UniProtKB/TrEMBL annotation, chain A:
Protein name: Sugar ABC transporter permease
Record-annotated membrane-spanning stretches: 12-32, 72-98, 110-135, 141-163, 184-206, 244-263
Classification via InterPro entries: MetI-like, MetI-like_sf
Organism: Paenibacillus radicis
Chief location category: membrane
From TrEMBL, chain B:
Keyword match Lipoprotein: yes
One Pfam family cited in the UniProt record for this chain: SBP_bac_1
Polar residues biased stretches: 27-44
Region (Disordered): 27-48
Protein name, as recorded: Sugar ABC transporter substrate-binding protein
Statement: the UniProt record of this protein carries the keyword Hydrolase: no
InterPro entries: Bact_solute-bd_prot1, SBP
Endpoints of the signal sequence: 1-19
Database matches in SUPFAM superfamilies: Periplasmic binding protein-like II
UniProt keywords, alphabetically: Cell membrane, Lipoprotein, Membrane, Palmitate, Signal
Entry-linked PROSITE patterns: PROKAR_LIPOPROTEIN (PS51257)
From TrEMBL, chain C:
CDD domains: TM_PBP2 (cd06261)
Range of residues in the leader sequence: none
Protein name: ABC transporter permease protein YurN
TM region(s), chain numbering: 12-39, 77-97, 109-130, 163-184, 205-230, 265-285
């Protein structure tokens, strides 16, 4: 079916995408150039200049020692695992209820989720802080976990979109066999939502991984350092050690990129189209 | 299996939240003032034990120098632990924690109204340092001291000697006219005469010093209360900020000031691409870290007129404070005392200790003092002034930026109008 | 046992048990702070002292009387424009990558990459791209002889918001694309094939079959874009601090400044609520437009 002849349209597509990729790669180039420079070299040379040696790993070693990356990764992974499980469970549950049933407060529930998404979180931090503090979660890893645990409007929308495409006949068939509603959720809906779950898990993981705001405010203790806040070992209001910062940014970017490369297969596997047919 | 796990998780979340909610009502009404020293964790008869947290804005030093100081302290007082918290966006973070009644034991003082100082901070008079510190009045209320500045900063003209040499300049300018001659020579030699880091804004705050030199006193800011038009073109603000403005008008600042960032400025002065900057003496260590040898750093007073008289400005910095809520005040206070007296902070970072009897022998400071400048000390700001300034949403960085690039008269008229309204409204 | 219950009873139990935890979290961490925001907007409060006094509508009056705030809000619409462009881009790339294009997996990964990057890293990198003297963009423009285009990107009041808008597009296009891709894959392929068999062209299929099937997702992306751009904070805060001279202030940078620099939490809260109201108005307009289009 597929022929190897020249296709102008797909050629154009390739060009178009390559331009976009060039624009994407342009900025990180600076990062790579400077992560291998020592302080003197960084100060005295242009940021675009190649480093003297790509084998100068001093910055990376320095970062490892100063940023407590081991501890940071442990904390970050703990938060991500628990919070993402929470998101997936709560997100699918809310979406299942909203997508399959009619009940009195359905509109109100949806409305509440939409309404809070309007509120810029940075302006409500004083109240949120009081809540966290009164729950005795301040300066514990649970502060970050509970704040990320709940589902949000984006997740509910994505799940709802998928649930609508799961034929009701599947539920009905299961009911004929006497399955409980919970069983329908667990054995039919939840598995069929897997592609959406993969997308949501990845997006949420990235969000938590890069979030600085919550860890700063709610868990300032040194033992609760996370990956994003470990960057701040190299910066204060009066000075920033950019060559170390570059190295640190690269080091914390690599794992998440690898993770993404690994999981992206699952995101785009297109399981749903197969299942729905 | 999976099912049970899920249910357990959901249930435990519920329990946790419910339990927490139940407990919530109890402590919401606890007012910050109402806890007179609950020293059950602190030990008796002067022996220091226990754990305190210390929040600092100096995030980049948390895992290096500051950690060393803490280790030294812990070694001196066995059985004590100091937990460091390095906070970015320090002020904002601390303010939120203030509202949530959750301040660390030792911290860099965040400004409140004077009357609120005792609400949040513990008096430090019993450290026995009162007669020996600079800026004692800055964070005092009703005769009690609530914060001690972490360093004394002298503001002056920091210059790269090599850059001066290259342009054929033998000595820093002694009069205002000379300042412009020097700048012209530097410009002709292809060197940017004066750095501002204009884009970042905060580096401009020191440029109000000339206005105070001209006024002859650091009460300039407080004396605004006596007038509806504090900003006049021929008054101190106009003349003082006028120096920066002239430098800008004549093209002696960075080529594109809106791109001039603090990071780039440090690099440029270190490499001699830029020659001067008006800033505090703490800047030396940044320059040295950026590769400029100490002997190439010069430091002189900024000439503000043609009289040949010099004035220098001493300013306070972030202050050490102890939280009024601290459960271990003796240890917290001991730590503050240690940081000021024994840590070695001032030597490590080439800064001037707030303790009057500690001398900092830096060749740059000797150079500065050789001009015999009359030293002015920054004054504590009247709460009425800050209230009115907040009411008019006075951002001093932006004010200086606007004065530099705009028409002075127009800019000042706008600010005078806002000042008058704000002063009336907050009376 | 549960199987023995009637489905209507089961339904009741399931709805309650499935919603209780999510709603509890929602109330504690989102709804309560939002309600508190409303309360604060009617108070005078400096943000830290125990005393709050009633202000009535004074804060709101101040918000509407303050020209600078509305000036700053106008900058948000530049971001919105770039956000819409970002959606078009995301959709176009999603459509491209949903076809049988060679190397599409690699492309997908690359296009999503900016979204993975840390916000501080992004700000830092673009500082060097757009720096007028040392920046890579101007170096590039000079080298190809386009000197007149090599301007002060962060220094020109008319340009700076477009630069920041472009950076948001750079960062978030990948996210839009992934959401559009997920939606495209959930469009049943038999509908598309049916359209093809009926002789619809590629474009016709896209406009009359595929897009109408994903109106909800388009709306979702627009929803996120509108909220994201009208409530943008990090990027101007990190990159320009609102400069030059307030030319890149946004509504939210002003709000945060009001709260933490000028210690006026009452007014900052009133500003937040005014912003929320504005967002709702704009979202309603968007909904009206998309609904009309899809019908």
């Amino acid at each position: 079916m597929r022929t190897m002849r020249f296709q102008p349209l797909s050629f154009l597509k390739h060009i178009f995408i390559w331009i976009a990729i060039a624009v994407i790669i342009f900025p990180p180039y600076v990062l790579v150039m400077n992560a291998f420079k020592d302080k003197q070299e960084f100060t005295q040379t242009s940021v675009f200049k190649m480093p003297n040696s790509f084998l100068n790993f001093d910055n990376f070693i320095d970062v490892l020692q100063r940023a407590h990356l081991d501890k940071a990764y442990m904390n970050t992974i703990t938060i991500i695992v628990i919070a993402v499980i929470g998101n997936i469970l709560l997100g699918t549950m809310v979406a299942f209820v909203l997508g399959r049933f009619d009940f009195k407060l359905k509109k109100a529930v949806m409305g509440a989720y939409i309404a809070v998404s309007f509120v810029p979180t940075i302006t409500t931090q004083v109240a949120t802080f009081t809540v966290i503090n009164n729950l005795h979660l301040y300066n514990t890893i649970w502060a970050s976990i509970v704040l990320h645990f709940g589902t949000n409007v984006l997740q509910i929308f994505i799940y709802l979109q998928f649930i609508r495409n799961i034929p009701k006949e599947l539920d009905e068939a299961a009911m004929m066999e006497g399955a409980s509603l919970f069983r329908i959720y667990r054995t039919i809906i939840f598995p069929l939502l897997t592609p959406a779950t993969a997308t949501i898990a990845i997006i949420k993981t990235i969000d938590i991984y890069n979030d600085m705001f919550i860890p700063y405010l709610y868990m300032p203790s040194r033992s609760l350092v996370v990956v994003s806040t470990s960057l701040m070992n190299f910066s204060s209001e009066r000075s920033t050690e950019w060559e170390l910062m570059s190295a640190a940014i690269l080091m914390i970017m690599v794992p998440i990129v690898v993770l993404y490369l690994f999981f992206q297969k699952y995101v785009f596997a297109g399981i749903v189209s197969g299942a729905v047919k | 299996m999976k099912k049970t796990a899920k249910i357990t998780l959901v249930l435990s979340m519920c329990m946790m939240l419910l339990a927490a909610c139940g407990g919530k009502g109890n402590d919401t009404n606890a007012t910050p003032t109402a806890s007179p020293d609950s020293s059950e964790t602190a030990s008796t008869d002067g022996e220091l034990k226990g754990t305190i947290t210390w929040a600092t804005h100096r995030t980049e030093l948390v895992d290096t120098d500051l950690k060393r100081y803490v280790e030294k302290f812990e070694a001196k007082y066995p059985g004590t632990t100091v937990k460091i918290e390095g906070l970015k966006d320090y002020e904002q973070t601390i303010r939120v924690r203030m509202a949530g009644n959750e301040l660390p034991d030792v911290l860099s003082l965040v400004e409140t109204t004077k009357a609120d100082l005792p609400t949040f901070y513990e008096p430090l008079d019993d450290l026995g340092l009162n007669d020996n510190i600079y800026f004692k009045d800055y964070n005092s209320y009703e005769g009690k001291l609530y914060g001690i500045t972490q360093q004394t900063a002298i503001n002056g003209l920091v210059y790269n000697k090599k850059a001066f040499e290259k342009a054929g300049i033998t000595a820093p300018p002694k009069t205002l006219d000379e300042l412009f001659t020097v700048a012209e020579k530097l410009k002709a030699a292809g060197i940017v005469p004066m750095a501002t880091a204009f884009k970042d804004g905060w580096t401009l705050q020191y440029w109000t010093d000339p206005a105070e030199f001209i006024y002859g006193s650091t009460s300039l800011r407080n004396d605004k209360l006596n007038t509806d038009t504090p900003f006049t073109v021929d008054g101190p603000y106009g003349q003082g900020l006028g120096i920066l403005k002239q430098l800008y008008d004549k093209g002696y600042l960075e080529k594109d000031i809106y791109s001039a960032s603090w990071d780039q400025t440090q690099k440029d002065i270190a490499t001699g691409k830029t020659a001067m900057m008006y800033i505090g003496n703490w800047f030396f260590s940044n320059l040295i870290a950026a590769g400029l040898p100490s002997e190439d750093i010069g430091f002189a007073p900024l000439p503000f007129d043609n009289s040949g008289q010099f004035k220098g400005m001493m300013r306070n910095d972030w202050a050490y404070a102890v939280s009024a809520q601290s459960k271990n005040k003796p240890l917290a206070k001991a730590f503050v005392k240690f940081m000021l007296e024994e840590s070695g902070d001032e030597a490590d970072h080439m800064i001037i200790s707030p303790l009057k009897d500690k001398k900092q022998d830096l060749p740059q400071l000797t150079e500065f003092m050789s001009y015999n400048p009359t030293m002015l000390e920054a004054q504590s700001v009247d709460t009425k002034v800050t209230t009115a300034e907040n009411k008019m949403q006075f951002n001093v960085f932006k004010f200086i930026q606007e004065s530099t690039v705009g028409n002075l008269q127009t800019v000042f008229d706008g600010y005078n109008k806002k000042w008058k309204a704000a002063k009336e409204a907050t009376k | 046992m549960i199987n023995k219950l009637s489905y209507s009873k089961q339904k009741g139990i399931l709805i309650i048990s499935f919603l209780i935890v999510p709603l509890l979290l929602l109330c504690l961490f989102s709804l309560y702070p939002a309600v508190y925001l409303v309360y604060l907007s009617f108070m005078n409060w400096d943000g830290y002292s125990p005393v709050k006094t009633f202000a009535g509508f004074a804060n709101y009056k101040d918000v509407f009387a303050n020209k600078e705030i509305w000036q700053a809000f106008s900058h948000n619409f530049v971001y919105l424009g770039w956000g819409l462009l970002q959606n078009v881009g995301g959709l176009v790339f999603a459509l491209m990558l949903n076809s049988k294009l060679r190397g599409r997996n690699g492309y997908r990964v690359m296009l999503f990459m900016p979204y993975i990057m840390n916000g501080v890293a992004v700000a830092y990198m673009f500082n060097y791209v757009f720096n007028s003297e040392y920046g890579s963009l101007n170096t590039l423009l000079h080298s190809v002889g386009l000197d007149s285009l090599a301007i002060s990107w962060f220094g020109s009041p008319k340009i700076v918001n477009h630069v920041l808008g472009f950076i948001t597009l750079w960062k978030f296009l990948g996210l839009n694309m992934v959401i559009y891709l997920a939606a495209l894959q959930s469009v049943p392929s038999d509908i598309i094939e049916a359209a093809r068999i009926d002789g619809a062209s590629r474009m016709q299929t896209i406009f009359h079959v595929i897009l109408p099937n994903m109106v909800r997702v388009i709306e979702l992306n627009l929803f996120l874009t509108i909220i994201g751009t009208l409530e943008i904070f990090d990027l101007p805060f990190l990159l320009t601090k609102g400069g030059p001279l307030g030319a890149s202030d946004t509504f939210l940078t002003k709000t945060v400044e009001m709260a933490f620099k000028f210690n006026n939490f009452g007014m900052a809260s009133a500003m937040s609520l005014t912003l929320i109201a504005a967002v709702i108005v704009i979202l309603s307009v968007q909904r009206l437009v998309t609904r009309r289009w899809s019908d």
